[in-house]
């Protein structure tokens, strides 16, 4: 499998994220949930954001490390980003997320990206915990996070710095 790497998107690269958020196949995992987010379509799971919305969001994420981390995921040999990965502060911990475009799912890229995110969060940025709220009926996502060392709590998937260093 080709190597993955992360890259912070330029403002011009935001078109990729907009495209992913509007793709029903990529965003189908969000469909049917009550998400309080401007532009969210409960039927398809898609999120419609204007160029101005994207630029405002972008400004909130630039140069915010170690508390906020956002990168596009690239794979050697593929010219476009295949998805995104991020974490940000949420109360006493950090919430994280990963999105792989539908057409690139099932190739092991998400696992490699999660492992790299853990390394960056725990080894480089001294983050204490990462959490992701995943509906527990998303069996493949749960398996992926468990494979990457996360444990299932009563509300989310979680990994701590100690858990990371002990595996």
Structure report:
- The structure is a single chain.
- The chain is of the alpha+beta class.
- The chain has one domain (4-166): Gcn5-related N-acetyltransferase (GNAT) (Aminopeptidase, 3-Layer(aba) Sandwich), CATH 3.40.630.30.
- It has helices at residues 14-21, 24-27, 51-61, 109-124, 139-147, 161-166; strands at residues 4-7, 69-75, 83-90, 93-100, 129-132, 151-152, 157-160.
- The chain is globular, with a radius of gyration of 15 Å.
- The model has no long low-confidence stretch (mean pLDDT 93).
Average pLDDT level: 93
The helix tally amounts to 6
Give the total of beta strands. Answer: 7
Largest sheet: 7 strands, mixed
Rg calc? 15 Å
Strand content: 15-25%
Predict the CATH topology.
Answer: Aminopeptidase
**Proportion in helices:** 25-40%
Topology (SSEs and partners):
Layout: E1 4-7, H1 14-21, H2 24-27, H3 51-61, E2 69-75, E3 83-90, E4 93-100, H4 109-124, E5 129-132, H5 139-147, E6 151-152, E7 157-160, H6 161-166
Parallel strand pairs: 4-5
Antiparallel strand pairs: 1-2, 2-3, 3-4, 5-7, 6-7
Give a quick set of tags describing it.
167 residues; alpha+beta; Aminopeptidase; seven-stranded mixed beta sheet; 6 helices; 22% strand; globular
Summarize the structure.
With 167 residues, the chain is α+β, with helices and mostly antiparallel strands.
């Amino acid at each position: 499998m080709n190597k993955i790497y992360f890259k912070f998107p330029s403002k011009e690269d935001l078109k990729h994220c907009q495209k992913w958020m509007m793709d029903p196949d990529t965003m189908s995992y969000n469909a049917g949930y009550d998400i309080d987010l401007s532009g969210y379509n409960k039927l398809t799971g898609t999120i419609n954001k204007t160029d101005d919305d994207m630029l405002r969001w972008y400004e909130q994420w630039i140069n915010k490390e170690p508390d906020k981390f956002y990168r596009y995921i690239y794979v050697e040999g593929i010219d476009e980003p295949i998805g995104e990965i991020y974490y940000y502060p949420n109360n006493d911990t950090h919430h994280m997320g990963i999105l792989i475009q539908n057409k690139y799912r099932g190739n092991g890229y998400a696992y490699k990206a999660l492992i790299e995110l853990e390394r960056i969060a725990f080894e480089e940025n001294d983050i204490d915990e990462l959490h992701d709220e995943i509906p527990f009926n998303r069996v493949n996502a749960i398996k992926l996070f468990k494979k990457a060392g996360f444990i299932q709590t009563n509300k989310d998937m979680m990994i701590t710095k100690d858990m990371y260093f002990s595996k």
